[in-house]
Design brief:
223 residues, alpha+beta, 7 strands
Length: 223
Amino acid sequence: GSLPGAPTEVPAWLSRPAQPAAEPAMAWPLGRALAQLGGAYILAENAQGLVIVDMHAAHERVVYERLKAAQASAETGGLASQALLIPATFAATAAEVAGAEAHADALAALGLDVAPLSPGVLAVRARPAALPDADPVALARAVLADLADVEASRVVQRARDELLATMACHGAVRANRQLTLPEMNALLRDMERTERADQCNHGRPTWRQVTLRELESLFLRGR
């Protein structure tokens, strides 16, 4: 059994060991996590002062870049999928059922297996391996909605990137999710390793720096 007070579930995106204790925290560009604020922000300390991170936006960007890299490296051009032990079923609209049938190949290329189970019911039997924490039904419905806007005969690069962005949103840590300090630090290290992690998928900043000089001016110090 697990130890009393031990966490019962570790998010799949936190799969790496913590940084070595010997490595100085101030050497990390985004610093060392201090706390979580308002269920939406990570506060961290770096050599310049305070770092404020929009955790959902930042993780969404990390997941998006991971999906793009996984798709680019896949020999078949598709994302690896992970079969669900128990298929996730949902009452679907006629448009969703028609979309699942018409876009079966595109869904498979995105790592999704969505097929009719009975009249008006769709079953999600597999989801992208890169999105182990995503809700399979919400993910499938969002992708089906996006595919409805794409011509059935083609999924052009722009549309594919938009599909991956939609999937990344569902794979990212949600707002108001309480993170532990190791989880926050894991996200900060992921951001440092990810290209363009300073902007979210919608072009907004994912983090801001508040320098010690700016903090001192707030408190009228040094005058």
